[in-house]
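Interim report, section 4.2 (structural modelling).
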Amino acid sequence: MSGLSAKIDKFIEMFIDYKGYVKVLEGLSNTLLIAVLGLLIGIVIGTLIATVRVVPKYKRLPRVLNRFCSFYVALFRGTPVVVQLLLAYYVILPLAGGHMTGVETAIMIFGLNSGAYASEIMRGGIQSVDAGQLEAGRAVGLSFSTSMFKIVIPQAVKNILPTLGNEFIALIKDTSVVSFVGATDLYVAFNYIGSNSYEFMVPYIVMALIYVVMVLLITLMIKLMERRFAKSDRRN
Amino acid sequence: MIDVINLEKHFGDKNVLDGINVKIEKGDIMVVIGPSGSGKSTFLRCLNCMEDPTGGQIIFNGVDIADPKVDINLHRRHMGMVFQHFNLFNNKTVIENIMLAPVYVARSERRKAKHKNFWIGVANVFRKEKKEKYPIGQSVAEIKSEAREKGMKLLERIGLEDKADVYPSTLSGGQKQRVAIVRALAMDPDVILFDEPTSALDPEMVGEVLDLMKQLAKEGMTMIIVTHEMGFAREVANKVVFVDEGQILESAPPKEFFENPKHPRLKEFLSKVL
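Predicted structure of the assembly:
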């Protein structure tokens, strides 16, 4: 085991004396930035798409929007996120003549991508609420939107939240591919430490531990939120 | 009060309602019976446009509410509905269930008056003769406390005032349905539609719901009831209607309806259920 302690010593030397932690902090903040902003953009897009999907489709406009939304969802769920990143960074951006850093591209793509998933999560959550709830709201003379906001959506949130948390966890782990477009994330940081010290074992283990800790913290947060929303289920 | 003229409803090419004509006067208690799949529930749901009728007219208080241009929400406020599966709002407590619609309606009227007053105020700057503003009436807190008071009175009436602040998931089926009836009453409706109100209840809870409905009947509430409770129909209704294959085959006072049925299909039906 003397080999392992030597490896740990080497990692600590790299991490502290050679300023490895600066890279790691940068990577960690990028990872979190991409995941959190990606989720927020995703929630906004997902809400818009889910709205289009559940609104009654008697008229022409909702029907056209609906078709556009299903195309969008099929596009972003049908291709791997790496492919979307590469296409955006190396094909679409140069063609459009825009300039974005790797991190910005990653935020955009992860936002668009998680928007597609979030929209399906929300649509499912809303549709899982008993149709009678909406009917009862309409029957006492509330409009479609009022019944939705006051009755259906508060109940749907309970179903949506755990799944959306899952989506966030998946998102955090998926960000480990952003090195494809030259952004510094946790993986790049620890790879940097590893290749400078010719020793990869400890850095990779530490990287895995950081991911695990992040995911556990998120799980805890989701649980706390769920408990707040479960009020009406509890028998008192 | 409700005048149904040639009401039609089809899903795809399936005719569920095939030209229904019926007239309901104030204070009428009309019971609709018929075999399952006959269209009696669809008929009831068409009356407040839960299902959009595909043809015909429903004249309610002088307005054809089957017309898609009519703001149906305004008319539904005068037309309570009670469902087979209660459909109490699960995310609201019992008293909130009852208060929700009255408070919402009063508040939205208040908001509208305020908006109008704002523009009247703006226009009055340029007018020589100042136009009068709309009265705003109660504050939001007053609206809420009044609705709560009324809701509590209604709950006392059904003996559930101690359940005011619990969620519906803790109530029994009979209690839920009684709260649902009271929720409809809170809007002071002109008529209440009952869609098989006792079909999802345990047998021992059917009585308490029927008792409440009988009380309402005595007070002169207009009711349209789809039910399988023949005894109740005979006792309470003043008009019984038999629906099959989307048409009204027989319509008569209960005594005549049950003792002297004319249509052969009704005779066959009664011989099976009585």
